[in-house]
Amino acid sequence: MVKTYIFGHRKPDTDTVSSSIALSYLKNQLGMDTEPRVLGTINNETKFALNYFKVKEPIYLNDVKVQVEDIAYKKGIILNANASIEKAFKFMSDNQITALPLVNDNKKLCGLITLKEIAKELINGDISQLHTSYTNILESLAGEEVLKFDEEIKGNLLVAAYNSSSFVEKIELNTDNILICGDRYNIVKKALESKIKLLIVDGNYHLTEDMLSLAKENKVNVIYTPYDTYTTSTKIRISEYAKNININENPVVFNSLDYRSEILDVINKCGHTNYPIVDKKGHCLGLLKVTDTNSFEKQDVILVDHNQKSQSVEGIDEANILEIVDHHNLGTIGTTMPISFRSMPVGCTCTIIYNLYEENHITIPKEIAGLMLSAILSDTMIFKSPTTTQLDIDVANKLAKIADVDIDKYGYEMFKAGSSIKGMKPEEILSQDMKNYNVDDVALAISQITTMDYEEIEKDLSKYVELLNNLEKQGFKIAVLFITDVIKNGSYVVYNDSAKEIIADSFNISDIKQGIYLQDIVSRKKQMLPNIMEVIEKKI
């Protein structure tokens, strides 16, 4: 992870999206590497603002959970399966590991080799057979290439330990033989005439020109080694292909995109200490040791327009929160280290961000100013919301000049574009801007939609009540939908059946019914939530 992500709450509105973009631009001007993200579908109002000012939509962010790719596993710790046992052992020793993923030429996993299996092979393995490459033998014997006709070397291994006459008389040689021999030229001659697979001449001895000619004629591979016969016969065993050892061909494998929390469950169940890591195409990337899981890089994030864990991205507890910029009441997000927390009782997060631009003497581009203005107009409902402060109004006017727009005209166009709900299902409307709260262990779900088309909701009023009652079954004692009309400066309210009395008391309604209109009730933060919370606290 390199970039710092900046994002708002899970139900992105114009303030959430605009403040993410505006703060990201500011941070980048100050030398950070940041990127704005969104945690959900962008609504029509916000899309209008983005299109109007020609700003690209931020990318969706699913979560900030720690993945395997964030863990300090041993990247690049892999070895071609055709490497020698010697090379595998040295590689493992150099990297202080007890297991090593073996891969093919395409870096696809072939299996997992361990020090234990190497030891077993060298102690109990069949020393009469050898299957490896010419190159591996050359390397293991510190050899000199003399004649090479085959890279693949496979055959029965023989050592010329008898005296020359006995060997020639008693030993049958053929094309499947690999012979280790010194200066016993009658044996060498028989071997070359028999067209053996490979002749290894030890002790720094060399073939005569006649012998070399015979070897060429019969296409016998030849290697010179400085080692004596005993050493040569010992060292040649470690030239064997690593893949020929009893490797685990189906080890437990993790993908680089797997979540740390999930792989820990697997590790606890299977109890292994080493795990190959692969990418989504199946290419092996390296080796994960159990101890590596304690060393990982958290995603750096900056939160805007929220500070509630329930409203934030999945896995926020695993992220490294650098900063919070918000205009809401204090929520449930905690940090292990001190951070910059800018919170102000204003109508919009972008009002705060404007001040950050001023403090850092950074010029606001036209398109960024336009988005910030859109956010302020949205959150303050063109200054009609009780959350509106004089600072919001002053900042909006300054931003309007930079963006070169008329506040009233642009604000109306924006709300009109964003208020249409035609074609939307009740489920979509209800979930579009729903926020969850807890008051003295009482769970609340409060949804708010801004539209001038209340008639569209009224047609399906019973469906909305049903959906709100279903939320109660999911644990929300209070589930409410406020349909806010900016022009009328009020809201219609729909609620779950059990919340009827609480809603009536919250807004002093004597004759409450579904869809009742509440004049001057437009702010969830300043009016809806506080009123409901006060009643709940009194009744508990």
Task: Provide a descriptive summary of the structure in words.
This protein has 540 residues and is an alpha/beta fold. The chain has 4 domains: 4-65 and 299-418, inorganic pyrophosphatase (n-terminal core) (Alpha-Beta Complex); 69-123 and 244-294, Roll (CBS-domain), CATH 3.10.580; 143-226, Udp-n-acetylmuramoylalanyl-d-glutamate--2,6- Diaminopimelate Ligase, Chain: A, domain 1; 426-539, Diaminopimelate Epimerase, Chain A, domain 1. A 6-stranded parallel sheet has the order 3-2-1-17-18-19. It has a 6-stranded mixed sheet with strand order 8-10-11-12-13-9. Strands 20-21-22-23-24 form a 5-stranded mixed sheet. β15 (274-278) and β16 form a beta hairpin.
Task: Looking at this protein, list some descriptive labels.
540 residues; alpha/beta; inorganic pyrophosphatase (n-terminal core); CBS-domain; Udp-n-acetylmuramoylalanyl-d-glutamate--2,6- Diaminopimelate Ligase, Chain: A, domain 1; 4 domains; six-stranded mixed beta sheet; 22% strand
